From TrEMBL:
Stretch forming the signal peptide: 1-27
Keywords noted in UniProt: Signal
Protein name: Lipocalin-like domain-containing protein
Length: 150
């Protein structure tokens, strides 16, 4: 019996077809944990109060996020839209799951676990910075946060 190998030119076509079959289910989700290639995945920081305090956000591809701000350390789960809106914003919903009860850079204690916050983020063209806003508008935003790790 003779084994037949796929010719090298056929294999990429088969892989492409398999990827296309998986994408419709993913695209139907309005907000999901970030795919590894999503621009939000990675570590970001923002220094405020004249360099006296830094906030760090580590978004993981599995939908979890760790943030530090002052003495506060908080764990979150999050969802993010896979594509930016027509206005250029990604909708991110973050829900706290665990916090240490200490004060953040603003002197506040993070809300109790289970509290959800919605942010609308917009990336720089190089995707190495983003601003976080209360709505799909530049009227009430903070940042920019800078990427520290991919």
């Amino acid at each position: 019996m003779q084994h037949t190998l796929l010719r090298p030119t056929i294999l990429p076509v088969l892989l492409c077809a398999a990827a296309l079959q998986l994408s419709p289910a993913r695209a139907a989700d309005p907000a999901v944990p970030a795919a590894p290639a999503h621009p939000i995945v990675g570590s970001w920081n923002w220094t405020l109060f004249g360099g006296k305090c830094t906030e760090t956000f580590q978004y993981r591809a599995n939908g979890s996020m760790l943030s530090t701000s002052g003495d506060a350390v908080t764990e979150w789960i999050y969802t993010v839209t896979p594509q930016a809106s027509e206005k250029g914003f990604y909708k991110v919903v973050e829900t706290s799951t665990k916090q240490n009860g200490k004060k953040d850079c603003s002197g506040d204690v993070v809300d109790e676990p289970g509290t959800a916050h919605t942010r609308f983020i917009q990336f720089s063209p190089a995707r190495d910075r983003f601003i976080a806003c209360k709505a799909e508008s530049l009227a009430a935003c903070f940042g920019p946060l800078s990427r520290t790790q991919w």
